[in-house]
Structure formats: structure tokens, C-alpha cells
């Protein structure tokens, strides 16, 4: 699975499918982008849909990837990256424009069921999972690593939802080292901290 390559915790329920799409990007220092060739994309998608079907309890279609599908998937991935970052080309994001079905189950609960064919079905499933995650309060915990060279999608399990790195020991330390080097450059390369001022106490009365 794509997320396993980044060493991140899997998002709960169907939100993991969206996390999987985001993590098809190549890991920072190894691996490949899984949406460049059908040979890489097809086994990833087949496994991801099988996992989604098992978690959601809904049947997943068999999607066969073409070159046009790869382009659609890469655009869809970029769209969801922008949604997570809440950015758009002019400050606003385009509408999802995908169909879904509302189907009551045997217990009377209405379920959102993806519809469509090919990558349109996948887009329907992904937008549905995004909506369900927002309704469940899980959406703010799906994040992109703050290291721009990484951008792994991770599910933040910290108590106060304060995580910014997919892995503190790698991306966090890399960012700290970069910041240290920048401070060192601004201080003339010495890396030494400026001397602390000496605080004079009141004169002794003895």
C-alpha cells in the first residue's frame, strides 16, 4: 500500500482510501510515484479498493487503468492536496461535481454510496469519504507533512491535533537542522549564540 511506504499510521475507516491516493507520490528519498505508469498504479488501486470495500462494507468495482485514467488520478490527487491545504488558484476551490447515491439500509440508516464508472466512481468515493470524515470530526486530523519535499499524508493522533510532521525523527529533525543552518548563516557562520548580557545586582551595603 502507498501509505506504508511513508511509514505513516493508516487513517480510520474509509478515509484511508483518500490517504492512499495522496501517498501515491514518491517518498522523499526512495521509491516512485505510483501514478506515473499503469504497471505501478494498477496493483496499488486494486489493493486500495479491496481494502476500502472490506472496511466500508460496500462492493468496490474493478477499475482497469489507462493512460487517460493516470492523468485523471494525478489531477484528483492534486485537487485533494489543495483541499487539505485549503488553497485554490484564486482563493476558492472548484466544486467536486461528482454523483453519489443515498441508499437506506435494512436498519433505516441512509448511506452515501459512490456511483459512476472508472475514475468517476473513484472520485465519487473519495469525495464521499471526505464528507463523512468531516461529519465525524476526523477531517482536521488528515494532514500533509510540513516538509515540502515530503508531503506525506498522515493521520494526526496527538491529543491536541498539533502534529505537523509525518515523522518527527526524519522530517522534523531535517527542518530543525535547516533552521539552525539559516540562523548560523545570518549570524556570520559562527553558529555561536550572542553573549548573554551581564546583570548587575545592587551594590553591597557591607
Automatic annotation (TrEMBL):
<feature type="domain" description="Zinc finger CGNR">
    <location>
        <begin position="141"/>
        <end position="184"/>
    </location>
</feature>
<dbReference type="Pfam" id="PF11706">
    <property type="entry name" value="zf-CGNR"/>
</dbReference>
<dbReference type="InterPro" id="IPR010852">
    <property type="entry name" value="ABATE"/>
</dbReference>
<feature type="region of interest" description="Disordered">
    <location>
        <begin position="187"/>
        <end position="206"/>
    </location>
</feature>
<dbReference type="InterPro" id="IPR021005">
    <property type="entry name" value="Znf_CGNR"/>
</dbReference>
<protein>
    <submittedName>
        <fullName>CGNR zinc finger domain-containing protein</fullName>
    </submittedName>
</protein>
<dbReference type="InterPro" id="IPR023286">
    <property type="entry name" value="ABATE_dom_sf"/>
</dbReference>
Amino acid at each position: 500500500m502507498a501509505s506504508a511506504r511513508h511509514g505513516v499510521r493508516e487513517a480510520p475507516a474509509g478515509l484511508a482510501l483518500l490517504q492512499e491516493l495522496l501517498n501515491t507520490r514518491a517518498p522523499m528519498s526512495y521509491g516512485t510515484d505510483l501514478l506515473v505508469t499503469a504497471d505501478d498504479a494498477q496493483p496499488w488501486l486494486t489493493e486500495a479498493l479491496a481494502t476500502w470495500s472490506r472496511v466500508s462494507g460496500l462492493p468496490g468495482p474493478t477499475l482497469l487503468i489507462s493512460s487517460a485514467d493516470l492523468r485523471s488520478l494525478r489531477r484528483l490527487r492534486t485537487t485533494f492536496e489543495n483541499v487539505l491545504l485549503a488553497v485554490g488558484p484564486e482563493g476558492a476551490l472548484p466544486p467536486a461535481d461528482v454523483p453519489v447515491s443515498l441508499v437506506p439500509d435494512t436498519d433505516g440508516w441512509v448511506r452515501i454510496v459512490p456511483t459512476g464508472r472508472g475514475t468517476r466512481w473513484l472520485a465519487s468515493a473519495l469525495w464521499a469519504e471526505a464528507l463523512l470524515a468531516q461529519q465525524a470530526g476526523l477531517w482536521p486530523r488528515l494532514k500533509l507533512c510540513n516538509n515540502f519535499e515530503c508531503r506525506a499524508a498522515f493521520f494526526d493522533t496527538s491529543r491536541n491535533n498539533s502534529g505537523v510532521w509525518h515523522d518527527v525523527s526524519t522530517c522534523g529533525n531535517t527542518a530543525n537542522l535547516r533552521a539552525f543552518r539559516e540562523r548560523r548563516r545570518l549570524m556570520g557562520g559562527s553558529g555561536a549564540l550572542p553573549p548573554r548580557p551581564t546583570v548587575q545586582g545592587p551594590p553591597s551595603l557591607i
